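INFO batch 0412 | record 1 of 1 | parsing
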Amino acid sequence: MPRPASPIRLYRHALSGHAHRVELFLSLLGLPVELVDVDLARGAHKTPEFLAKSPFGQVPVIEDSEVTLADSNAILVYLATRHDASGRWLPRDPLAAARVQQWLSVAAGPLASGPAAARLVTVFGAKLDHERAKTIATQLYAVLDRHLAAEPFLAGTTPTIADVAIYFYTAHAPEGGISLEPYAPLRAWLSRVEALPGFVPMQRTPLAAA
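INFO prediction complete | emitting tokens
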């Protein structure tokens, strides 16, 4: 597949885990990117101009030539389908693709309502049920830990967009008050993701509340 004629524009916030998913995957694919920071504190995501790109007023959003697309998981699927000729990141085989989709559903479900929500409380002061979020996170990580004791990556023996989707809010779960110490296979998986060529980290933020 030809490389983009111009850099893919990524609208993001520097502390957004959803935006980091996309930034990470763009780097893993080796695609040129132009980062555009959206000032959420000043309401830049609620302007008519931004809502025309992202109707729910959320980051990330990408612009790739004629394509404008919001939602981090949708963007991962798009990038893997359009810009990964190998099919490595989103397998073409029906069962393998379905296994990746299972983890994308986890990313939009218990990952979002568990560790991501817990981090919203401690880092951003969101008025959410912190204890409930931590409970969901520990239940999720118990399942992930058992799975990763048998598999090197979430959807099998090689990395896919499933790993990209789950990585950030797991690696940064301690920012939400969730310890990863009990989960050795899970922590080993994080190290494998971080060792991938093109991996880019995101700054860690201090715990703002308990």
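INFO post-check: The longest helix spans residues 130-148.
INFO record closed
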